[in-house]
Specification:
The protein is mainly α. The chain contains 20 helices and 18 strands. The protein has a 3-stranded antiparallel sheet. The protein is globular and about 120 Å long.
Length: about 525
């Protein structure tokens, strides 16, 4: 009870201080209160201004980051989710090259135009017929153009297009086709395309699909020699060779699955794919001639070659020699894959014996051989040879390396002139007189530019890109009504890389299959021809 008067007095004092009359009678206190109120208002306003300035700064910074990111993509440089700027600078060695940056953007525009046309008129089908504005299943309905294009889309930074294609692969791609497929074409386009998409994106759907289609191809290797048949029904697993070739297997078709099958075994841990492909090389070693030049026809039962069969670095021979070199590179040039390099060097000695010069134009070219006779004919497909020679030159000693690189440059000049001169001015027989946007010359120019640093090869590539392409016959100008899947997989990809810094799909980390699908280089430490354990 003694505290009640004190409590009542304190309450009265509080209420008086809340009354305006209290301060009007005490101007000094009113001034203090007013000053405190104004200070609080300014403090709050200043706080709001700082927040707004901070948010505006963050917005401007975000815009600048996006702008710089777009510029890096245009330069062919792709950042990880958490990039480290020092690593980016060291890895990519950023260069200011406005001419080739602009060229690269034009190639990317061409890719988008081709892709959008495919998406509009032939989505999910194998190839587009641009004149008819329709699709056609040239490979049994495997979505060849879509799968062939996956890594090109990824490398060019076309993320939305890549993701849409990825959904189709996951939801619609089906290999259960009652269709007799080419083992070779299915391997290099479908298996290679899916493995490359996996190596670039690490998305396991691509690896799963690659394993599915390869399992369907494996019965083709069930021959007495282990050299595969070249055709197989994907649904029934029945394999055979075409009658037009007398039941023989074709050298390139049978000897160009090693890169893809070795990569699949490394990625899955299942040695059966590598075992099948490398057994073919062991069989070829048994019949390998002293000049390293195998005829294009081989009996899949006996493993013997057809006497006096044609020898060529063009159609039906080409990629066998290419893969001898590239499996050595794929294995990171270790002792385990040394025999591939040795076989390749032997074959290159044979190639040197086929080189001639035209007269009077003085173009170097690679002949075809039938028995003991040489044919003064160079197939346009053989224009991959300059790039292959340039890629392999560094594995020689200085003198031999210079000889091989000089030949590569001479042959590249010849192939470049396929686009500039009519066949009569070349003083030789060119294998084809029609242009279906073939990639081999562009491929060689890309290798030569990267390995020599000579910008002339970029200029030649740009000239070819600007030329009227897509013609069925370069003499009549008849338009072609087929957009081959390799145009997006190879031609446009090699052009894009020709105008990109060498760090984009670096030769130190990647090796291209014969359809231009980059596969990761994996160091091998197994015994020669064995499976062993790969280190990634």
């Amino acid at each position: 009870m003694g505290r009640r008067p004190h409590s009542s007095s304190a309450s009265s004092r509080v209420w008086r201080q809340l009354s305006p009359w209290y301060y009007l009678k005490r101007p000094a206190r009113l001034a203090i209160l007013f000053a405190g109120f104004v200070s609080a208002i300014f403090a709050a306003w200043d706080r709001l201004s700082l927040v707004r300035d901070y948010e505006a700064g963050i917005y401007r910074l975000d815009e600048e980051v996006n702008r710089l990111h777009d510029q890096l993509i245009k330069a062919g440089i792709y950042l990880d989710d958490n990039p480290n700027i020092d690593n980016i600078i060291n890895k990519h060695q950023l260069e200011v090259d406005p001419v080739n940056n602009a060229r690269r953007e034009k190639v990317k525009e061409a890719m988008l135009h081709a892709w959008n046309s495919y998406e509009m008129y032939a989505w999910g089908e194998d190839e587009l017929q641009p004149q008819s504005k329709s699709g056609v299943d040239s490979f049994g309905g495997l979505g060849a153009t879509l799968i062939d294009s996956l890594d090109t889309l990824y490398i060019m930074g076309l993320k939305d297009e890549f993701q849409k294609a990825r959904v189709w692969v996951a939801e619609s791609l089906n290999f259960d086709k009652d269709y007799e497929a080419s083992v070779f074409e299915t391997t290099i386009r479908i298996v290679g395309g899916l493995l490359s998409a996996y190596d670039l994106s690490t998305d396991k759907i691509f690896l799963e699909k690659a394993r599915d289609i390869t399992d369907r191809l494996l019965p083709a290797w069930d021959t007495l020699s282990g050299i595969p048949y070249n055709r197989i029904n994907l649904a029934q697993g029945q394999a055979n060779n075409p009658g037009w070739n007398g039941g023989n297997s074709i050298l390139a078709d049978s000897g160009s699955e090693q890169l893809e099958f070795i990569a699949l075994s490394q990625r899955t841990g299942d040695p059966k794919y590598q075992g099948k492909a490398e057994n073919v090389i062991r069989q070829f070693q048994k019949i390998f001639p002293s000049d390293g030049l195998l005829p294009i026809n081989i009996n899949p039962h006996s493993g013997s070659v057809k006497p006096y069969s044609k020898i060529a670095f063009g159609a039906m021979g080409d990629s066998f020699y290419e893969y001898l070199l590239k499996v050595w590179i794929q294995g990171n040039k270790t002792e385990s894959v040394k025999h591939y390099r040795e076989m390749w060097e032997t074959s290159m000695e044979g190639l040197l014996s086929l080189v001639r010069k035209s007269s009077p134009s003085n173009f170097s070219y690679v002949c075809e051989k039938n028995g003991d006779s040489l044919s003064d004919k160079m197939d346009e497909l053989a224009c991959f040879v300059p790039g292959m020679l340039a890629l392999g030159a560094s594995g020689y000693g200085p003198q031999k390396s210079e000889q091989i690189m000089n030949l590569a440059e001479e042959l590249a000049w010849t192939c470049y002139n396929f686009y500039r001169l009519t066949p009569t001015k070349l003083d030789m027989v060119v294998g084809t007189s029609w242009n279906i946007l073939r990639p081999e010359t562009i491929e060689s120019l890309m290798y030569l530019w990267r390995l020599t640093g000579n910008g002339t090869y970029q200029d030649w590539g740009w000239e070819i890109f600007q030329a009227d392409v897509g013609l069925t016959d370069v003499n009549t100008g008849t338009k072609d009504d087929m957009m081959q899947s390799f145009f997006l997989a190879e031609t446009l990809k090699y052009l894009y890389l020709l105008f990109s810094p060498p760090s984009v799909i670096s030769f130190d980390e990647w090796v291209f299959n014969t359809e231009a699908h980059p596969l990761k280089i994996v160091t091998r430490h197994d015994s020669e021809g064995g499976l062993g354990v790969a280190e990634i």
